[in-house]
Description:
This protein is of the alpha/beta class. 49% of the residues lie in helices and 15% in strands. It has one domain (46-208): Rossmann fold, CATH 3.40.50. A five-stranded parallel β-sheet has the order 3-2-1-4-5, with helices on both faces. Helix 4 (112-125) crosses helix 5 and helix 5 (140-150) packs parallel to helix 6 (175-189). The N and C termini lie far apart (65 Å). Mean pLDDT is 84; it is low at 165-170 and 203-209.
Amino acid sequence: xxxxxxxxxxxxxxxxxxxxxxxxxxxxxxxxxxxxxxxxxxxxxxxxxxxxxxxxxxxxxxxxxxxxxxxxxxxxxxxxxxxxxxxxxxxxxxxxxxxxxxxxxxxxxxxxxxxxxxxxxxxxxxxxxxxxxxxxxxxxxxxxxxxxxxxxxxxxxxxxxxxxxxxxxxxxxxxxxxxxxxxxxxxxxxxxxxxxxxxxxxxxxxxxx
Length: 209
């Protein structure tokens, strides 16, 4: 018995939907494993370091690499507001005076896409050809994807930092946060990120108004 055309269309759509869902879950399992895998070794020395703000742990790690000579310059992208080096030193509990001339506070970025745009401009200005990337482990895949699109000729070296709770134990983001992050990562890999509205544009519009 031949099925009605409408039923065949619905069954085909259901099959495609199930395949897409299975693909998403399969990719999400890969994403989970990728964010928990130890990063590759860092180079002995890199031209620069970029820290994507979002926690004091990221800043401390990036500043420690800078202080140890792992990179010549450091960009802290997305610092926002009126935070200065004094406030930064207080937040991380370090004396930044010896490093001050090598630190740039980036105030443009308000999203991961903005971080990449800001980093690309800074890298071009400072002739950066190798870059250590410091951000949270669960955020690293999307950050690298954005940075690779903005900096195709720069070698990127991930240095993830695991979030910690008040008792200094490794804390994992919720399943919802990880699922949202994976979905955003897929959009970046698909090349759709520049087409979506970003907070930088909204902030600029507010400033103009």
